[in-house]
Amino acid sequence: METFNLNQHLNPNHAELFGSTDFELVVRGGANAGKTYSIADKLLMQPILQPNVPLKAVIVRKTLPRLRSSTLEIIEKRAKLFKLPFDLNQNYMFANVGKMKFVFTSLNNKDDYEKIRSMTDVDFIWCNEVPELNEDDYELLRTRIRGGKSSFAQLITDFNPIGKTTWVFKRFFQENVGNPRKLKYTILDNPWASKLEIERLKATGRHNQNFYKIYFEGEWGELEGVIFDWDIVIKT
């Protein structure tokens, strides 16, 4: 049987993310920090670490087009890299990886909400770019993690810290509701980011301090009329 060293593809700087079993895991960071890749990796590791356990992960983003071009694409790519079977049912938007079922859904209309409300036996939920949702959406997702068989259940959110006026800042950082585990990563935590990519992002500080603060430092910026959606694909 062919042996495969999974560790060579995992970000060693994200060990706390991989090791967290907290019910709520809040991951913020700058551009090209590799956080979405590591979250995808963590979920894909579960059917390897718990091979005899039926598991379910629900992957959520506000709209389906953005979900397809971000989390779905990343999970599919990483599954291939890890030599895991990933056959997406395009009609029902789910895929099985071993005994783990990945369900992909938007949260943008009545049908989406009904789909979420009807879900059972959910072990993991990953809400990508959580500021796109409202707080009631998040509360709904929080109630769906129940009845699963995993050794731990987890609701993971990730985002760029675009502004302190968002409900995300108030809930998780100002009021610390639920006492979630909070992690921060930047491009400097991404061993696959090139020197040129780092310098290019760092250079934004010369002309746009707000952009620099959010996307290079991974710190809270200020909403200034335009919300940047800067998805950068890392190389591994």
TrEMBL record:
Gene3D superfamilies: P-loop containing nucleotide triphosphate hydrolases (3.40.50.300). Residues 26-219 form the Phage terminase large subunit N-terminal domain. Signal peptide: none annotated. NCBIfam families: phage_term_2 (TIGR01547). InterPro entries: P-loop_NTPase, Phage_terminase_lsu, Terminase_L_N, Viral_DNA_packaging_terminase. This is Phage terminase large subunit N-terminal domain-containing protein. It holds the Pfam family Terminase_3.
